[in-house]
Amino acid sequence: MNHKTLKPFPKDFLWGASTSAYQFEGAWNEDGKGPSVIDKASHPEGTADFKVASDHYHRYKEDVALLAELGLKAYRFSIAWTRIYPNGTGEVNKKGIEFYNHLINELISHGIEPIVTMYHFDLPYALEEKGGWSNRETIDAFVLYAKTLFSEFGDRVKYWLTINEQNTLILHGSAIGTTDPNIQNPRKMLYQQNHHMLLAQAKAMKLCHEMLPNAKIGPAPNISYVYPATPKPEDVLAAQNFNSIRNWLYLDMAVFGRYNSVAWSYMEEKGYTPHIEEGDMDILAGANPDFIAFNYYNSITVKASEQEEEAHSTGDQHIVIGESGVFQGCSNQYLTTTEFGWEVDPVGFRITLREIYDRYHLPLIVTENGLGAYDKLEDGDVINDDYRIDYLAKHLEQCQLAITDGVELFGYSPWSAIDLVSTHQGINKRYGFIYVNRDEFDLKDLRRIKKKSFYWYQNVIKTNGAQLFQTAK
Ligand code: BG6
Fold first, then answer.
1. Which residues line ligand 1 (CB under 6 A)?
2. Quick one: which of 96, 215, 217, 88 has its CA closest to 143?
3. Sign of CA dihedral 354, 358, 360, 363
4. Omega within 30 of 0 (cis) for the link into 416
5. Whole-model pTM?
6. Looking at residue 311, what is its pLDDT?
7. Which one of 181, 228, 295, 374 is at 20 to 30 Å from 133 when CA atoms are compared?
8. Of 18, 10, 71, which is closest to residue 293 (Cα–Cα)?
9. Which of 19-23, 185-189, 411-415 has the lowest mean pLDDT?
10. Nearest-CA neighbor of 375 among 453, 422, 452, 430?
11. Among the atoms of ligand 1, which is closest to the Cα of residue 425?
12. CB distance 170 to 194 below 8 Å
C-alpha cells in the first residue's frame, strides 16, 4: 500500500542500540563470574574468542558517555547469568550485582532507558553439567535468577526481555555453540529443552507482573517472515510450514499460551513432541507478555522439499537449508546479500512487522537489526561505513511505513551499539556505530572511534526520524 502521507515516529519513540554480555563485556572470569556454556564452547578457528571481547566491563563509563553523545533514548544489554549466579543457582555474587547496578545507574544518570535481556545464549555451565535445559531444574534456576534481577534492579529497570532468540537456540544452536555438534539427532532433545524454556519464560513473565506491577516484559525471538519461492501451492505450504516452525511456535506460545498447530503436527510427524507434565499448559496459558520484542536481519525464502535433506543449519544462524518433506531453503533473486552472504530485505522488515502485529496486536520493539561488515579504519581515525547507513536508513524507512500501516512500534534498537565479537565470525564482522580498535588476536588499545554511522544515527535521533537519508559528517 502506498501512503500519501507518512505518520511520524511516535514522540517518545525509544531510539536504542543493543549489545549482549558475552559478546561485549570481556572479563570472562573476573570478580567471581562463573563459566557459561559459551566460555566452554569450542570456538571457530581464526576468530577472536570472548575472553576480552570489547572490554566493556572495564570501560562501561566511557561507553555509556559515548551512547549518551549518540543521543540514545534506550540501551538494550544483557545480564550475564553467571555474574549473578556463578553456579547457576545457590550463592549470589555481590560483585556481579554491583557491576550491573553501576551500569544501570550510569545509564539513568545520562537519561538512557535500560532494556534488559535476562538471558542471551550464555547458560551457566554448572547448569549445563546437570543437563542444561533438558533438566527441569533449570526452569527453577531461571526463576530464581529472574527473582533476583527483579528485586535488585526492578526499581530502575522498566523493560525486561526474557530469552534472546530462543528459536535460534533451538534451530541453530550448533552455529552459536550452544548445541553439542557431536550429538546425533538432537532435535527431540531440543524440543524438550524448548518446552522447558517456554515454561521458564512464562513463570518469569508472571513473576515480573507480581513483583513489579509497573514494569513490562516480553519475549525476544528472531522473527523473519518466510516467503514461498513461487505461487505454486506446494511452495506456499512449505512457507507456512517454516513460518510456523521458525516464528509462530514461539510467539503463539508466549502470547496465547498454546502450541502452534502446524508446528505441533511437525513435531508429531518427526517424533519430536516434548513430554508435557500435568499443570504445564496452565502455566503456559497463565502468562502474558506486555509487548513483543524481536530481532530481524533478513527474510527467508523456501520452496517445497524435493530432496532428502535433514540438515537444519549450515553453521550460520541466518542461512537456511531445509528439512525433508517440510521445506527447502532457497535464495531470493530479488534480494542482494551482505559480504557475509546474508540477504538484505528492508521491505521484508515491513512485512514482518505487519504480520506480527496482525497476529498478536501487542506493541512491538525491534531489539536487533543491522549490517555485519569488514569496516576499514582510515587515516585520522575515520570509518566511512556508508553501507551501514544505507542498510539502517532503508530499514527505518520501512519501520515508518509499518507505523503508517497501523503497527504499534515503540522502539528500534539496532545491532550493535559498539563493535563486539560476532557469535561465530569474530570481531572483524563489525556492526557498531562505534569502532573498537582491536583485531581478532591483537588487542591493540581497544580504543573507541566514532564511525560515520554514529553521526548519521545521532541526527536521526535528534530529528526523531525525520531525516533518515541525510548523512552527516
Ligand atoms: C543475533 C544474535 O542472532 O544475531 C546476536 O542475537 C548476534 O547475538 C547477531 O551477534 C548477529 O549475528 P552474528 O553471527 O553476525 O554475530
1. 20, 23, 164-165, 168, 222, 295, 317, 368, 372, 415, 422-425, 429
2. 88
3. positive
4. yes
5. 0.97
6. 53
7. 295
8. 18
9. 185-189
10. 430
11. 14
12. yes
